[in-house]
Amino acid sequence: MSQSSFGEALNEQVANEFAAHQQYVAIAVHYDSETLPQLAAFFYRQALEERDHAMMMVRYLLDADERAVVPGVAAPQVEFGDVVSPVALALAQEKRVTEQINGLAALARQESDYSSEQFMQWFIKEQIEEVATMSDLLRVVERSQERAMDIEDYLAREQLGEAGDDPTAPHPAGAGG
Ligand SMILES: [Fe+2]
Ligand SMILES: [Fe+2]
After folding, report:
1. Taking the mean position of all CA atoms in its chain, how far away is CA 69?
2. Helix (H) / strand (E) containing 75
3. Are 160 and 153 in contact (CB under 8 A)?
């Protein structure tokens, strides 16, 4: 089975997406243990989205007849000093992923691999949304850090990060279709 350098780089991104999944589960569990159910629910939801991203990439590798390797991931951060730091960590992670996604699109273009370049377009759009959502949340959390219930109310009201059905989203491996 072949492995292009894009395929190799996309396998690395699968590991990054699974690591993001683990980090968001860790953040959700942290907020859950602090009895902040809206913050917990938000991060449980984000975690599932990251898993989907990983599985969309696995599906693409399979469809493109590239080697798809299910990776191990490093342990996530599980201890947090205050209500703000998990969201700050999440925003930094989303910004890092945006750079990684842009790098993958650039690599595909450089290799004249137009189907891979096109595959990356959905993720570019997704990262713009995720950075915007996490930036909004960070502002709210910073403003209300002494009043955690205000943050909970905000999340309950705004349904932050609750994306509707996106028919243009790539199918994750194992999800049918
Ligand atoms: Fe992601
Ligand atoms: Fe993300």
Report:
1. 19
2. none
3. no
pLDDT digits (tens, 9 = 90+) for 116-159: 999 999 999 999 999 999 999 999 999 999 999 999 999 999 88
Query: Which ligand lies nearest to the CA atom of residue 169 in the structure?
Result: 1
Does the CA dihedral 163-169-174-177 come out positive or negative?
positive
22 CA from centroid of ligand 2 (Å):
12
pLDDT higher than threshold 90 for residue 1: no
pLDDT in tens, 88-109: 999 999 999 999 999 999 999 9
Through-space distance between the first and last CA atoms of the chain, rounded to whole angstroms: 24
Residues of 64-103 as b/e, b for ≥16 C-beta within 10 angstroms?
bebebeeeebeebeeebeebeebbebbbebbeebbebbee
Span from the CA of 93 to the centroid of ligand 1 (angstroms): 9
Dihedral angle computed from the Cα positions of residues 75, 85, 18 and 137, in that order, rounded to the nearest 10 degrees = 170
Neighbours of ion ligand 2 (CB under 5 A): 130
Distance, CA of 144 to CA of 105 (rounded, Å): 38
Query: 3-class DSSP state for residue 177?
Result: coil
Q: Is the pLDDT of residue 165 over 70?
A: yes
Q: Which H or E element spans position 170? A: none
